[in-house]
Amino acid sequence: MNQYVFGVDIGGTTVKIGLLTKDGYLIESWEIKTSKKNSGENILPDIAESINEKIRELSLIRENILGIGLGVPGPVNNDGLVYVAVNLGWKNVNVAEKLQIFTGFKVKVGNDANMAALGEMWKGAGTGCKNIIMVTLGTGVGGGIIVDGNVVNGAKGSAGEIGHFRVEDNEVDSCACGKKGCLEQYSSATGIVRLAHRELEKNKEESLLRDICNISAKDVIDAAKYGDGIAIKVMDSFGFYLGKALAGIACVTNPEKIIIGGGVAKAGSILINYVKEYFEQFVFDNCGNICFELAVLGNDAGMYGAASLLLN
Amino acid sequence: MNQYVFGVDIGGTTVKIGLLTKDGYLIESWEIKTSKKNSGENILPDIAESINEKIRELSLIRENILGIGLGVPGPVNNDGLVYVAVNLGWKNVNVAEKLQIFTGFKVKVGNDANMAALGEMWKGAGTGCKNIIMVTLGTGVGGGIIVDGNVVNGAKGSAGEIGHFRVEDNEVDSCACGKKGCLEQYSSATGIVRLAHRELEKNKEESLLRDICNISAKDVIDAAKYGDGIAIKVMDSFGFYLGKALAGIACVTNPEKIIIGGGVAKAGSILINYVKEYFEQFVFDNCGNICFELAVLGNDAGMYGAASLLLN
Predict the structure, then answer these.
(1) Where do the DSSP E strands lie in A148-225?
(2) Which of A244, A246, B56, B136 sits at a 20 to 30 Å CA gap from B19?
(3) Three-state DSSP class for A83?
(4) Chain A residues lying within 8 Å of B253, measured CB to CB
(5) What are the chain A neighbours of B159 within 8 Å (beta carbons)?
(6) A–B: how many Cβ contacts below 8 A?
């Protein structure tokens, strides 16, 4: 008798839904639109309807479904209460309770970045590990901390907010959070571009980047691969700050592995080279000498991780 | 029917043993010498003997004893394996298994700094909390991280080694660990004294500290309380570095409370003033606005925490 779980990853534009076996085999995945009207009050009913429809379509037996796991873009506590999800219009919504009422299934909820970490541990770059740090380098920097196989949510659901780990005391620009010197200002896609503009202004050297109108993080990384001096300097700063932050985080939780995901990680293993050297230089020896890997599940990680919440 | 637990805190010189009720009432505590001969192989038999003697002396019924909790000065994994305890001469000793054989009781083991954190959460400054950071400011800087009521040990038992959290990129002196810019170099007793000597050399101002031969951390803190300019500068640096490290750690685990213990914390709440301002300035807002408290159990914290391991 097969048992199934649904994994759901709610984003600002689309909701990703997956039907998986208990062993983590993805049977099918699909997307629905995220409806933001009326403070996002249709999102959970829409998800319930889509799941119920899929159950009918595939003639699944309800008793064989272990439940629904949900990843949400905001802080979540251990009981499935979402404190706030700005992109969805939610504030203090008990998502677990509500979706359970709409579907009749057991529901577990987590923060989306934490779910991505859990997904990579279950079926991605972290299989076999129980203690990992996952850092997601996209427009911003997100993080998920796993200790003894469980996600760390923290007192107000804001554990793993490593994008706002302070790494520089002399920054003059402000981060989106209002503070100065946050990791996100250096090691996100936006951060890499910011550093590139700063370096191009300060440093009069020739650079491939000078011919590009609208520099992207990918442009900088590609130029660094080509040996462009200014791009290499920028990527060295990227690695210095990320390595420093991860070294600090590693002496807090002493992980087995660090996984790097998000759009920026598509650049490949060159990223790890930039980070790992500084990490080992800065980390307490007992917490160092650990493996860095690139995430492998891409945008599916959150769906896998959310589904895995039902397996404990 | 009363149920009892033994809490044991193994130090380099003495072993502290306590007999507590299941509710955490300390019936009696005593000390035995830590025997370091033959790579510390007598330590566990000595503890077993002392506990058995106490059981006979008080005519306790063995069935009413839930077990023994142990705090050890070194990294410990979740199964009670001590990787290394330099001060005891231990290397890869399965302490839980051995003491269980010697006594017949269930045995649980943790790192001493982690046990102190657990003790403060059970019966000290952290009662009612489930997510805390405890930082111990003594000769060095130690730490204990509690998440959802459980100690974080990490993959190699080295979680919470926050004394080696990097806080300064421009340090020229080396930390005991061999790296440069560790928190311990600024916010331990030794660190405060080091900063004081540095400031006295650099800054030609008058200072009460100039009349003292062998400056201690207490001298510096006392002078700061008197309004001594140089001492205030030193304590401001102390607070800056500790506040910065704690802000970073808080965005990893999002605690409810931060507890400051150890010899330096005897200076009282003035310490919190120095730290909290920088902490709030540097921390991600969702992880900030939290309570700082001084530890209250002193040297008994580890014994309480170790005992509490038996209650899960």
Answers:
(1) 150-151
(2) B136
(3) strand
(4) 145, 152, 154, 159, 252-253
(5) 147, 251-254, 287
(6) 147
Q: What is the pLDDT of residues B11-68, one digit of tens each?
A: 999 999 999 999 999 999 999 999 999 999 999 999 999 999 999 999 999 999 999 9
What residues are paired with A150 via a beta bridge? A147
Contact B154/A248, CB-based, under 8 Å? no
pLDDT of residue A230: 98
Reported as a single tens digit per residue, the pLDDT across B278-312 is 999 999 999 999 999 999 999 999 999 999 999 97
Q: Would you state the structure tokens that stand for residue A208, as one six-digit string?
A: 């491939």
Strands B26-33 and B65-72: unpaired
CB contact under 8 A, A286 and B248: no
Axis-axis angle for helices A217-225, A189-202 (nearest 10)? 60
**How does pLDDT run across A194-247, given as a tens digit for each residue?**
999 999 999 999 999 999 999 999 999 999 999 999 999 999 999 999 999 999
**Helical H runs in chain B?**
37-40, 43-57, 95-103, 112-123, 184-187, 189-202, 217-225, 229-253, 270-282, 301-308
Q: How far is CA A80 from CA A106, B86, B132, B149, B200, in A?
A: 11, 44, 21, 18, 54
Question: DSSP string covering B155-217, please?
Answer: TTS-TT-GGG-B--SS--SPPTTS-SSBTHHHHSHHHHHHHHHHHHHH--S--GGGG-SS--H
Question: What token pair was written down for A91?
Answer: 């504030």
**The two three-digit tokens of residue A239, written as one number:** 């690695």
Asked whether B187 and B195 are in contact (CB, 8 A), the reply is no
**Strand ranges for A187-273 from DSSP E:** 257-261
